Amino acid sequence: MKIFNKICVIALLLIIFMAGHAVNANALLPDTIAPTVNSTNPASDATDVAINQKITVTFSEAMKHSTINKNTFTLTQGTKRVPGKVTYAGVTATFKSAKKLATNTQYTATITTKAKDRAGNKLASNYIWSFTTRAATGGTISGTAVKGPVANATMTAFSINNGAMGSQIGTGQTDGQGNFSMSVGDYSGPVMLQLKGGSYMDEATGTNMPMQQSDMMTSVIPSMFSGDAVNGIQMTPLTSMAQTMAQGMAGGMTSANITAANTGIGNYFMVNDILHTHPMNPLTLGAGSGADQNMKNYGMAIGAMSQYANNVGMSFSSAMVTAMMNDVSDGLMNGMMGNSSVTMRGGMMGGSMMSPNAGTSGMANAMTQFIQSTMNQSGVTLQDMQSMIDKLMTSNGMIQ
Question: 240 near 219, Cβ under 8 Å?
Answer without folding.
Answer: yes
